[in-house]
Each structure stands twice: as structure tokens, then as C-alpha cells.
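Quick bug: DUF2786 domain-containing protein output formatted oddly.
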Amino acid sequence: MSTTKAPKLETIRALLAKAEDPRTPESEAELARKRAFEMMAKYGVEQAMLNDANPANDAPTDRQIVLDNPWAMERVRLVNRIALALGCRLIHLGRDGSGPARRVHVFGYASDLQRVELLYTSLLLQMNSGLAAQSIPPGQGARAWRRSWLLGFINRVGDRIEEAERGAREEASGETSATGRSAALVLADRKAVVSRNYQQAYPRSRKGGITTITGNGYGAGWIAGSRADIGGKRIGRTSAGSIAA
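Here's what came back:
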């Protein structure tokens, strides 16, 4: 991922750091989370519009990423929800070698991959710490309950990211770029380019199957996802630039 620092992204990082600091009162933490989430979504639209006349500044790219254990498949699902909401496409390539880690291939514009990185890192930390704090109800299978909690968390934060992205697009509906193109057209063209690059690389890709949930922790995970701040520094081990999981 790019290491370029943008002032707005640094502001988002600062807000998230405040929200995640246990010394911050919950009311202030929630305001910081909300602001960081809104700024992240708006940043994506702003970058798309700003770079419409300067495409070299924000070119489509791709990257392969290794997601380690614990819960490697659930990490795949988390980054999948984030990437799709932010206009990227990913494919799950399966195990990375003979170990439990999983490899994914991400396609998107550079600024959007940077946003994916920020959100994934923050949410992974929250997901792991949230799960570690859970007390499994009596009579529940530990692994099944924890997995269902993770799926509830992932689905809820995925919905929240999608809602924020949709709101940012609607807010920019009347704007035009330096080339005179509307925000809707700019974003649609970016989506088409990403999809074309993905299809060219994986013409035989297909959607994954239905996820089966056997534990009873989904609701608790969903509630935790509602409280999570959306908004990091690395995804995992990386190699060379939609998750069907």
C-alpha cells in the first residue's frame, strides 16, 4: 500500500486514535468515531473528483495480500465487505502455501486501496479485542459461538460502511469535476475500470457459496459492529498491486 500521507487521512487517524483511547469519555469517543467515518467516505469521493483531470495521480492498481490466523477466513470476509463498499474488487485465492493463512488479490484505484487499508486495520483490531472480551454463554460450542459473533460484527460494520459511502455519493450528486463530468459519472467509470481489470485477471471467477452460521453469537457481534469506529497502518503481509469467499 502507498505510504503517502494526506492531511485529511492524518486527521482521520487522529480521530480514530482518540476514539480508541480508553481514557477518552465514551460520548467524546463516539463523536470522534462518527466524524472519522464521515470523513473517510467523503475523502473517497473527493479524491475521485480531484483526480478525474489528473488520472496519473490516482491510477487503478492491484495487490496480493496474505491474511494470517487466527480466523483467517473471517479476515477475508471483513476485507471483502470493506473493499466492495469502497469501489474495489477482491478474489480469495485460497491458502497461502501449506499453512492456515489466506491470500487475496485486491483491485482498485490507489486512493481507494489506501482507504481499505485504513479501515481494515482499525476494524481488525476492534474485532479481535471485542471477541476477546466476550463471555461465551453456558452450553454453547466455543468455536461456533465465536465464529457467529465475528460474522455478526463483520456484517454490521459492512452495512455501516456502505451506508456512509452511499451518503457521500448522494451529497456529491450535484458536483462536477474539472473536466465537467458529474460525480455519478466519474464514480461509475472508476467502478467499470476496476471491474474490467478484475475480469481480465480472473475471467472464470465466480461468487462464493452461502455462509452457514451454527453458533448463537451473531446478535452480540452485530451489536458490537454497531459501536465500532470505522476507520490503521497495514493489512497484512503483502506481495506484488471481489472476494469470492
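Actually, after a second look the formatting is fine. Strands lie at 60-67, 89-95, 102-109, 237-238. Closing.
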